[in-house]
Amino acid sequence: MGNRADTNRQWLLASRPSGEPTMENFEMVETDVPTPGAHEVLVRTLYMSVDPYMRGRMRDAESYAEPWDVGDPMRAGVVGEVVESNHPDFEADDVVTGDLRWADYAVCEGRDLRTVDPDRGPISAALGVLGMPGVTAYFGTTDVAEPTPGDTVVVSAAAGAVGSVVGQIAALSGARVVGIAGADEKVEWLESVGFDAAINYDDGDVSTALEETCPEGVDVYFDNVGGPITDAVWPLLNVRSRVAVCGQIALYNATELPTGPRKLGKLVETRGTVEGFLVRDYEGRWGEALDRLSTWVADGDVQYRENVVEGLENAPEAFLGLFEGTKIGKQLVRVGERSA
Length: 340
Hints:
Layout: E1 7-13, E2 26-32, E3 40-49, H1 54-57, E4 75-85, E5 95-101, E6 105-109, E7 114-115, H2 132-145, E8 152-156, H3 163-172, E9 176-181, H4 184-192, E10 197-200, H5 206-213, E11 218-223, H6 227-233, E12 237-245, H7 265-270, E13 273-276, H8 286-299, E14 306-310, H9 315-320, E15 330-334
Parallel strand pairs: 8-9, 8-11, 9-10, 11-12, 12-13, 14-15
Antiparallel strand pairs: 1-2, 3-4, 3-6, 3-15, 4-5, 5-7
Helix pairs in contact: 2-3, 2-8
């Protein structure tokens, strides 16, 4: 049996936010450390992910991710260490990842866990470039957007955990890649990892900047944000363009969805396609994605950044920071250290 404490801290959804979430929407409680039942595993959290999609789970509305009830434990992608196992595939001190709780400890069905190979890279990467964001980027680019040599690819939220990998994969395909982000530091980093150009949307007129950086139009748009950024890309879409819709973070805190100029006429003109997708559609193919991604990371073809907030007690602040748009790469919370 691995290391374990006497009590377990965990975060609950205290109330549903209206607009942007605040600290009042979260409550930390202390409970006993859970005991695993048949085929279950007790996991001690080492790293925890915070992601924009969690905002949708705080709403009392139907979505692709089931909403949390008020009083429910918050959940997240976690990398942790097995403390106790009643499942034949896992033993104490194994490093695993799964959808667990914002907590020091959580019990999970063994079938819902995946082993993390520390030889593939830092274990925290299993929540980023070698985890859900990386796999999302991989399939969203290779299966949905399908960039080809010579294409112009525009990526919004390009300095994020998904967008930064999308741009680098697109560049590996021979496309010309333009990223849109919200700070000069992000622009500099994107250009350092292989983006051909990057636009700081805080500098002013995104439409003009896109016209200058995409003089031959846009063949692929990978949309992580929606809103005014997407509006600025739309007029530049080329014939047979592809739009991959991954996220709409610009609208996640909206109390009412804005209705703007109708855009679908552009698709008639261009015969373009717009396709939304979810990474869970590719559950049976994660191995393929992780093999390719880990090779690219090892070879330096795909680079990544992590922002690590220390301490479970600071998890809500880490989550709220997602909506400030100031961080580069994957936002993580470090909760514990490996015992082995």
